[in-house]
């Protein structure tokens, strides 16, 4: 064994550039594999810990308006599958009435409610994941605002309405198992009972959260149907605990998924490089291998001799990768730890990466062994004669008219006859280009206002929310009256949301959210079919259609106000809101059944969206006004920030890979073509000519690879992104590309990196001569 290790070490020193490049590939693969799994382990641990300590609700129904508490108690008492229940009294305060450091929260789209600590379950936790307690004059601020505004303990939040003002000192930052993620549009502030009573006398509007914990095995669909059938208070959104957990997991899990996907790409690159290096090395040493076989050297010993180097390499790479993955994974996990805490099963973030490293090592060792065994099958005579090497040599003919562009002709000729040798570097260049573009295109897509279309509505400039309250109709009419007389508004449309019953695939009747409005004003792109054109058509969201097993043209029966209504499915669209289960139909909802009005509008050319939003806020003071760009930015802000980190890492890693693979490939190819280079120099080709030929070969491969990588990023990248969002309700995402960056800046950067590497890597040809070749 000592002899094998010594031979392996000597081989390392003899091929430093190649060994270093391969080591970097393996280390990067290990870092991303272990890092992605560390983020995954941290996320699972954190979410489990938050849910274990906060004891989240299984079902939550929001409600504005009056209700009968005795009816609620009777409902709970008559349904034995309900384990526990809770009524949370929440004071909703307009964002314009909340100030921090002299600025209001008006630019934030979140609905802000003020509550006291719950009893029984659904606890609000502090940053130590303990049940938070605040005293009179203190306030617990949601972690979302702490991160967005940099709010810390000791800061002051001011609540004001007219002449009344109340200052509350931040005593803790709040983690909320139900409303943590930016994807949830409501946030809860924790205050004392005395402060809540005082504030309710001067400002705000009461909203109630009816929460339930169910016995094991009970579906929330059963509860929801019984709850609605009983006519219980439901003027607001109803959400299951599993959906809230999915929102949290999606917010933090997207990065872990992308990092792990990158690691698999890197592993593929490392295996391709490894296979090529082994084949190239054994092809060069065919005579030595033949000699060893001829003198009776056992096949197993030869296999070990070549394998020990790569085993040592992968073990070292695994250890280094695991150690570096700890700070790397922790950095990318900072968001989930901030929002959810360290968790109660921290072993996951140590064990998951270890499993990944072991898996990586086994994959590489298996591939290494397979390649070596395959290349040792030649007989002693074949190896001694070099027949295996000759089989792989190709030939090309020079043009009879002479060499008008000699370097170009020679370079393309060699590419033609040796294309198999260049297939490895081609695929790696493709992967590198793919690796740069996919995260960048994902971020651009999420960042663009048109991403709003994946939330079930057409693209517009401004969104107006009028949520259920006692003045719902009055507020809607006031908004429409103002918009009708505003000459700076190009167009607008009003949409209303209500509930109907629908029979699911299990034959159970459940409630779904239906939107009614003019779909032609802000048209939505449909996966199949089109928007309803009359009162007989209904459009279903992707998840609804999938679960109901419905296609365009199928009939569908819904129940509203006890009456059966028959529709024909006119289209299927994508929607990631409300758990991805919505529909669109011309149902004439009664005013009391309308949960919310949405008004979408476009401003005329030359009118600033932000200026018009500020104007509308000053006039429609009781209504939430949000520019669509802000809506998307705030809803997906945390995801976009994490995607920016991944995008930056992917660009750096890809450029580093391009440089390393170019160095490694040039080292191998110049060694293999030693004699050919010497002959070229003997017949009159200069060192400059030979270096140009190498440059043409590699840059041509790089150029073609960039084109292929770009096509794959735009096609396969869309499929991957759609698959990632399919659980949320969007199965087909159209990737939005920034042409200047994607098609010019980054391709030029990649070509420049390769160009510089070729210049540096081909210097070695100066030392090649025909005299040395003849002597060998």
UniProtKB/TrEMBL annotation:
Coiled coil: none annotated. It is found in: Cell membrane. It is a multi-pass membrane protein. InterPro entries: ABC3_permease_C, Membrane_comp_ABC_pdt. The chain crosses the membrane at residues 249-278, 310-328, 348-368, 422-442, 649-671, 698-724, 744-765. Keywords: Cell membrane, Membrane, Transmembrane, Transmembrane helix. Its main location: membrane. It comes from the Bacteria. Residues 261-372, 650-761 form the ABC3 transporter permease C-terminal domain. This is ABC transporter permease. It comes from Paenibacillus segetis.
């Amino acid at each position: 064994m000592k002899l094998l290790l010594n031979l392996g070490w000597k081989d390392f020193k003899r091929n430093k550039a190649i060994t270093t490049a391969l080591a970097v590939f393996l280390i990067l693969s290990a870092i991303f594999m272990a890092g992605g799994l560390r983020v995954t382990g941290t996320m699972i641990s954190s979410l489990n810990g938050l849910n274990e300590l906060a004891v989240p609700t299984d079902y939550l129904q929001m409600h504005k308006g009056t209700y009968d508490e005795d009816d609620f108690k009777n409902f709970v008492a008559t349904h034995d599958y309900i384990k526990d229940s809770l009524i949370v009294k929440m004071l909703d305060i307009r964002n314009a009435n909340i100030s921090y450091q002299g600025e209001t929260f008006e630019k934030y789209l979140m609905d802000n409610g003020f509550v006291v600590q719950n009893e029984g379950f659904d606890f609000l936790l502090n940053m130590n994941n303990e049940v938070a307690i605040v005293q009179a004059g203190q306030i617990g601020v949601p972690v979302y605002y702490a991160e967005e505004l940099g709010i810390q303990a000791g800061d002051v939040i001011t609540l004001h309405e007219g002449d009344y003002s109340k200052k509350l000192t931040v005593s803790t930052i709040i983690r909320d198992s139900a409303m943590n993620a930016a994807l949830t549009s409501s946030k809860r502030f924790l205050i004392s009972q005395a402060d809540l009573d005082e504030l309710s006398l001067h400002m705000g509007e009461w909203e109630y959260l009816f929460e339930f914990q169910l016995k094991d095995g009970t579906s929330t669909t059963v509860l929801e149907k019984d709850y609605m059938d009983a006519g219980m208070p439901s003027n607001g959104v109803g959400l299951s605990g599993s959906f809230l957990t999915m929102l949290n997991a999606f917010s933090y899990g997207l990065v872990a998924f992308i990092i792990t996907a990158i690691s698999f790409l890197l592993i593929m690159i490392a295996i391709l490089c490894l296979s090529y290096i082994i084949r190239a090395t054994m092809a060069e040493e065919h005579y030595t291998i033949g000699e060893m076989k001829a003198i009776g050297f056992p096949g197993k010993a030869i296999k070990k001799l070549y394998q020990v180097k790569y085993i040592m390499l992968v073990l070292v790479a695994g250890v280094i990768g695991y150690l570096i993955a700890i700070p790397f994974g922790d950095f990318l996990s900072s968001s989930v730890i901030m929002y959810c805490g360290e968790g109660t099963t921290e072993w996951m973030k140590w064990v998951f990466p270890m499993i990944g490293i072991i898996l990586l090592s086994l994959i590489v060792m298996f591939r290494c062994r397979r390649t070596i065994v395959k290349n040792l099958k030649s007989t002693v005579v074949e190896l001694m004669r070099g027949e295996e090497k000759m089989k792989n040599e190709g030939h090309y003919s020079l043009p009879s008219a002479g060499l008008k562009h000699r370097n170009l002709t020679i370079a393309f000729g060699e590419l033609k006859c040796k294309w198999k040798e260049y297939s490895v570097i081609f695929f790696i260049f493709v992967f590198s280009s793919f690796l740069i573009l996919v995260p960048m295109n994902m971020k651009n897509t999420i960042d663009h206002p048109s991403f709003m279309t994946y939330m079930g509505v057409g693209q517009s400039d401004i969104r107006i929310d009028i949520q259920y309250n006692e003045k719902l109709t009055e507020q809607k009419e006031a908004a429409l009256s103002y918009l009708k007389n505003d000459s700076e508004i190009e167009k607008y449309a009003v949409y209303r949301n209500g509930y109907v019953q629908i029979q699911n695939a299990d034959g159970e009747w459940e409630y779904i959210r239906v939107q009614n409005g003019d779909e032609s004003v802000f048209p939505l792109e449909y996966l199949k079919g089109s928007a309803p054109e009359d009162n007989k058509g209904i459009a279903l969201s992707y998840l609804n259609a999938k679960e109901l097993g419905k296609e365009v043209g199928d009939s569908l029966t819904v129940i509203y106000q006890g009456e059966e209504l028959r529709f024909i499915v006119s289209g299927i669209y994508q929607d990631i809101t409300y758990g991805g289960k919505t529909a669109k139909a011309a149902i004439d909802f009664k005013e009391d059944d309308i949960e919310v009005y949405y008004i979408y509008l476009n401003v005329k050319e030359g009118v600033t969206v932000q200026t018009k939003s500020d104007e509308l806020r000053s006039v429609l003071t009781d209504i939430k006004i949000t520019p669509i760009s802000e809506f998307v930015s705030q809803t997906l802000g945390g995801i976009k920030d994490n995607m920016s980190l991944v995008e930056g890492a992917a660009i750096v890693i890809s450029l580093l890979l391009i440089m390393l693979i170019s160095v490694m490939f040039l080292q191998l190819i110049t060694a293999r073509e030693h004699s050919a280079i010497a002959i070229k120099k003997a017949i009159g080709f200069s060192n400059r000519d030979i270096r140009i030929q190498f440059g043409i070969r590699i840059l041509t491969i790089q150029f073609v690879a960039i084109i292929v990588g770009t096509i794959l990023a735009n096609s396969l990248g869309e499929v991957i992104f759609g698959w990632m969002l399919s659980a949320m309700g969007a199965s087909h995402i159209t990737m939005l590309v920034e042409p200047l960056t994607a098609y010019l800046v980054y391709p030029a950067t990649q070509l420049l990196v390769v160009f510089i590497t070729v210049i540096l890597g081909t210097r070695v040809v100066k030392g090649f001569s025909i005299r040395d070749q003849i002597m060998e």
